[in-house]
Each structure stands twice: as C-alpha cells, then as structure tokens.
Amino acid sequence: MGKLGADASMRCVHCGTPVAAVYVEYSPGNIRLSECAKCGFVADEYVECEIMIVVIDLILHKPEAYRHIFFNYPLLHKLKMLEFVWKTSLLVLLLDSCKLCLRGVGKTDVRWESLSLFLSTAGKVLAKVGLANVVFLITVLALAYALPNLGPHAKSKWTDLLMAVALSSYFKMFVFAMMVWEYSPLMTLIIDMLVLSSNTVALKVMLNTSTPIAATVIAAAAFFRTLCRISIDFVL
C-alpha cells in the first residue's frame, strides 16, 4: 500500500474539487499521480514539474497553476503560509512605495534634502500606499462575502483571500527593473494592468466563481483604491 500525498484539503487543479491526495508514493522516487473522481483528469500534474514551469504558467494566467500554488503546494512542502503571506504583503507595500517614489522623482513632492524631509516624505508615501491597499483588500473581502452564489468555495477565510491577492501581485516585482532603467508611465500602467488581471484569476480560483464576477470585484476594489489615493493627495 502506498503513501498518500497530502490530505483532503488539497484540490484538483482542473475543477477545484477536494481530493484525498494528488499522488500515491509506493517507494522513494516512485509515485503515481492520482486522478480526480469528478473530472477524470490527473489531480495535479504540477507535482512532477519544476517550479519554473509553475511560474511560467502563472505568468500565462493558467488557473491550474494558481490552484496548485494556493491549495496544494503549501501542503506538499509543509509551508507556513500565513507567515509567508504577511512577508509577501510587506514586500508588496515596499514595491508600491518604490513605485510611488519613482512617479514623484523630479517633482516638488519628493524631498530628500534632510532627515526631517525624508521622514515626512516617507510617512506620506507609507500612508498613501498602506491606506490604498487596505481599501482595496476591504472592498475585495466585502464583495466576496456579500455577493451570492459565488460557488461552493465562496466563503473562504479572509486569510485565504489575502493570500490570493498578495501572491497574485507578483508582477509588481518588475518595479525593480524600473529602478534600473528610466521611469516610464506606460510601463507603470502595463504593470498595474497585469497585476489586476492576475488578481482576477486568483480570485476566480479562490472563490471558484466565473471570470466576469471576479473581474467585477477586482475592478470595484481598484476603483475605490484610486478614490482613496486621490483623497489622500487632496488631504496631504
């Protein structure tokens, strides 16, 4: 009798149905991938793939790759996802802060001449970025719990939704490239659109809902985040 790969909280990457295991291990290095009882496909073929294959499929916005990362990968590798999500969230805030500073380079609102000006600028940047992202997350959470008939997994924990939004914001890593080359507003817009499209796929997977509903939730959250930024600019 083989050893099961993980437990019933794992999901089929194709249909999202909970599965008892994604593989059966008969001996070290000798495994057989399990099939989903509902759709008949292999529950998670990414088990045998290198992480770079998963990353490529994430960039291509394949829902199967998102399900693998959200539901199966943490259990297979015994990761402490909550701790990882908080660290990722801090990285997202840092990247947003850097992007905001890049937008302001050469303008009068970015002042670094003295420690007091540096602290004042840093405080404004962190306030704007932090509040804007909080508004975005609150909107996502509110709509996710308010909209009816989102699917059997709609009532996800708020930490799961935070994980979906944080991990699917990986396109913000391109901000590091913007620090090397000349700042381009067009590149910023492209990165923002890629992040929102990735957020949409992640929310679709986490809530097991349709793309239009997930896109509506993300679009509404982005709208309120923009309003928050405008309000902060007006106040500060």
TrEMBL record:
Which gene is annotated as encoding this protein in its UniProt record?
Answer: LOC112288035
What family is reported?
A: Belongs to the ARV1 family.
Q: What is its main location?
A: endoplasmic reticulum
User: Do the record's keywords include Lipid metabolism?
Assistant: yes
Membrane topology (UniProt):
Multi-pass membrane protein
Protein name from the UniProt record? Protein ARV
Segments passing through the bilayer:
125-147, 159-181, 201-224
**Function of the protein:** Mediator of sterol homeostasis involved in sterol uptake, trafficking and distribution into membranes.
Compartments in which it is found: Endoplasmic reticulum membrane
Q: Cellular component per GO?
A: cortical endoplasmic reticulum; endoplasmic reticulum membrane; Golgi apparatus
The biological process GO terms on file are: intracellular sterol transport; regulation of plasma membrane sterol distribution; sphingolipid metabolic process; sterol metabolic process
Report the Pfam families cross-referenced here: Arv1 (PF04161)
Which keywords appear in this protein's UniProt record, sorted alphabetically?
Answer: Endoplasmic reticulum, Lipid metabolism, Lipid transport, Membrane, Sphingolipid metabolism, Transmembrane, Transmembrane helix, Transport
- Xref: InterPro entries: Arv1 (IPR007290)
